[in-house]
Amino acid sequence: MADRKLPNILITGTPGTGKTTMAELAAIKTGLHHIDVSALVKAEGLHEGHDTEFDTYILDEDKLLDALEIIVAPGGKIIDFHTCEIFPERWFDLVLVLGTDNTTLYDRLAERGYSQRKIQENVECEIMQVVQQAAGESYQPEIVVNLESTTPEQMEQNLDRLAQWLDDYVAKNA
């Protein structure tokens, strides 16, 4: 996949850090195609059932990876998911790890109606930088970028930075 004219970008982070919002806005701004992995898992039945305790689907990684392999092959995709280490390194040209302050994260998750246990688990993951660590261990350091995603201004700066990176990528791979 190294000869892609358009890159594949992974936007990852703890639930509530703004992945889907950024991916949707980035797709509009760049013309790349947004894939919300959580929605894909649900829509295509790429799971082994529902975990009622955590109110989430139990991911079938093999089914998901088989489905995504075809989707990402030509490039031009923005993949949005809270887990990053399951994806092959060769799929992505840029990995953006979003982070946010704990108060904002707590409020966002509470607004979604998450249980107190689920909120606590996700805030602890953010404090311990679980996704940042997983991205750092799963991908080459030169393609992993940690971005603060607490305010609308930060989101706009991140989108501008992504658009500039894409322009540079396209110019280099034309």
TrEMBL record:
The keyword tRNA-binding does not apply. The keyword DNA-binding does not apply. It comes from the Eukaryota. Keywords: ATP-binding, Cytoplasm, Kinase, Nucleotide-binding, Nucleus, Ribosome biogenesis, rRNA processing, Transferase. Interacts with small ribosomal subunit protein uS11. Not a structural component of 43S pre-ribosomes, but transiently interacts with them by binding to uS11. Its EC number is 2.7.4.3. This is Adenylate kinase isoenzyme 6 homolog. Residues 111-121 are annotated as: LID. One of its GO terms (molecular function) is ATP binding. Pfam families: AAA_18 (PF13238). Residues 36-59 are annotated as: NMPbind. Belongs to the adenylate kinase family. AK6 subfamily. The gene is FAP7_2.
